[in-house]
Design goal:
Largest sheet: 5 strands, parallel
Strand content: 15-25%
Radius of gyration: 19 Å
Strand order of the largest sheet: 2-1-3-4-5
Shape: elongated
Oligomer: single chain
Length: 227
């Protein structure tokens, strides 16, 4: 796997370490250390993925992520020493594809970069080839059997399945599956996830393709028995 990676990190030693590991994996790297130059640079230099630190001089990484998403869907992995739940949720709500907290292993970062690129490039056939979604009927069939989903459950499942491995926060899920302005709390999402899991297991005992990420949200990983 190859690609161009922008590293936005104001700690020179850490930026150099990440660049070394990524270059050893055949990636081409670029490094920026100041927040205000990131967006103009990306507009002029297309890359395949951005490693974006949150705490930067000049401009916060969350603001940068928000602006990038107004003109580009380039994959973004947020890197930060902040471990509070609100920061993890904010990064994902603003459109980040993954989130890594310091301290971390450079090998883990390389593995995350490769995983996000595989997902966003569509290099995998998908985590559940035996799961078929029919949007015209709001119907989901697992190995030929109807899961009997409600409209909201179907929208939720479709959202997760279309980006396997991507973590969605509860607020992000609610914004996507409810088109009106009704009031729902974040525990409503937990309830829908619980019902989805039960319906999967009713068709295939032991199936649990929807995984929870503590303090962040949910992601679709796949079904046992799939390649």
């Amino acid at each position: 796997m190859t690609g161009k990676i922008l590293i936005v990190e104001d700690e020179p030693k850490l930026a150099a370490l990440l660049a070394d590991y990524l270059q050893d994996s055949a990636f081409v790297t670029f490094t920026l250390a100041e927040g205000t130059v990131v967006v103009p640079w990306i507009r002029e230099h297309p890359v395949d993925l951005v490693l974006l630190d949150i705490m930067l001089p000049g401009r916060d990484g969350l603001e940068i992520c928000r602006e990038i998403r107004t003109f580009s869907q380039v994959p973004i992995i947020m890197i930060t020493a902040r471990v509070e739940e609100i920061d993890r949720i904010l990064g994902l709500e603003l459109g980040a594809d993954d989130y890594i907290c310091k301290p971390f292993s450079p090998r883990e970062v390389v593995a995350r970069v490769k995983a996000v690129l595989r997902r966003t490039r569509g290099e995998q056939a998908g985590p559940a080839p035996d799961l078929v979604l029919d949007e015209s009927r709001y119907q989901a069939r697992l190995r030929g059997q109807d899961l009997e989903l409600t409209a909201v459950e179907f929208k939720l499942l479709k959202l997760l399945v279309e980006a396997p491995g991507r973590i969605y926060g509860r607020e992000q899920i609610m914004a996507r599956i409810y088109s009106d302005d009704r009031f729902v709390n974040d525990r409503t999402v937990d309830s829908h996830i619980k019902k989805l899991r039960k319906k999967f297991q009713a068709v295939e005992p032991g199936a649990d393709p929807i995984h929870s990420v503590y303090g962040v949200g949910y992601k679709f990983e796949g079904l046992a028995g799939n390649p």
